[in-house]
Amino acid sequence: EKKKQGPISLEWLRTAPDHEALEFLLSVAGLGRKSAGCVMLMALARKEFPVDTNVARVCARLGWVPLQSEAALEHLEQYPDEPEVHKYLHSRMMSFDQETLFELHYLMITLGKVFCQKRLPNCSACPLAPDCD
Q1: Residue 60, pLDDT score
Q2: Closest CA to 62 of 108, 102, 122, 114
Q3: Do you know which SUPFAM superfamilies this protein is assigned to (predicted)?
Q4: What is the DSSP string of 94-123?
Q5: Domains in the chain and their CATH numbers?
Q6: More confident residue, 27 or 60
Q7: Directed axis angle between helix 53-62 and helix 98-114, to 10°?
Q8: Does residue 96 come out as left (phi exceeding 0), alpha (psi in the -120 to 50 range) or beta?
């Protein structure tokens, strides 16, 4: 006979310390660092800076993360991957408040999708072109 269970809740994450909430989220099968970071930032209103391919690409092109060489700017396969970019940026970004981190994350994803595409970036229309490597 099946035992009737109550509702499943993750509300306890709201009051858990950051490291415990992140550790739990990373233990969920199929939830990676970026998705866990998004839950922390957007659902739990915690200070976090998730990095996806768009954010990593924009950060590399803006010179916010070190590349192996100047030639790497022309070769996407030489860009650091998302975990490396996250590791490099995380401590540097934590001086911002949660609201700023949320806006920056959202704007960088939008910038990466609209202007800074992987293969054919639209640099001539990009608002950050003067600051871009």
Answers
A1: 85
A2: 108
A3: DNA-glycosylase (SSF48150)
A4: TTS-HHHHHHHHHHHHHHHHHTS-SSS--G
A5: 6-46 (no CATH), 49-132 (1.10.1670.10)
A6: 27
A7: 90
A8: beta
In which residue are the tokens 């595409």 written? 117
Q: What SS3 string covers 2-44?
A: CCCCCCCCCHHHHCCCHHHHHHHHHHCCCCCHHHHHHHHHHHC
Q: Which long-range contacts (CB under 8 A, 24 or more apart) does 15-19 make?
A: 18/46, 18/47
Q: For residue 41, how far is the Cα from the chain centroid?
A: 10
Look at the alpha carbons of 31, 114, 124, 128 in this order and tell me if their dihedral is positive or negative. Answer: negative
pLDDT band of residue 66 (cuts 50, 70, 90) is confident
pLDDT of 49 reads 94
